[in-house]
Design brief:
alpha+beta; globular; four-stranded mixed sheet
Length: 140
């Protein structure tokens, strides 16, 4: 099972593996996360049992998830938590938490709704890492 022992691992970012915008976010984070603080996993690679365990019920995967310290963050809460883990100057992007979370999530939802039209979509899930999925997600 891919998501065994989540409480004892690095934070895991779960993203839509066919979304070009989501893929670019992952590539960006891989580039700037010099301390290798995160693991990345396309939502499409989760089993149905894992989705239920993590309470991921969406079939269209419009939400970014961060699983960290036994908690699940979504949408803007996930982005803020990710930014808080990064080194400056990227850490400063967490400034978006000065805005009401409901407003941030409305903007997030609006972007998520049009992301395929604007940024495109892959026909299959692509591995964005330099290592195999088995190595990248080992012990997640």
């Amino acid at each position: 099972m891919i998501v065994n022992n989540l409480k004892n691992t690095k934070p895991v970012i779960l993203y839509d593996g066919v979304c070009n915008l989501c893929g670019e976010l992952v590539r960006f984070l891989l580039k700037i996360d010099k301390s290798n603080k995160f693991k990345f996993l396309p939502l499409q690679e989760l089993s149905e049992k894992e989705k239920i365990k993590l309470k991921i019920y969406e079939e269209n995967y419009t939400t970014l998830f961060l699983v960290s310290k036994g908690k699940i963050f979504t949408k803007c809460s996930a982005l803020i938590s990710i930014f808080e883990e990064l080194e400056p100057p990227w850490k400063w992007l967490k400034f978006i938490k000065i805005f009401p979370l409901a407003l941030c999530n409305k903007v997030y939802d609006a972007i998520a709704k049009v992301r395929y039209k604007v940024f495109g979509k892959k026909s299959c899930v692509a591995n964005l890492n330099d290592v195999s999925p088995a190595d990248q997600y080992n012990n997640i």
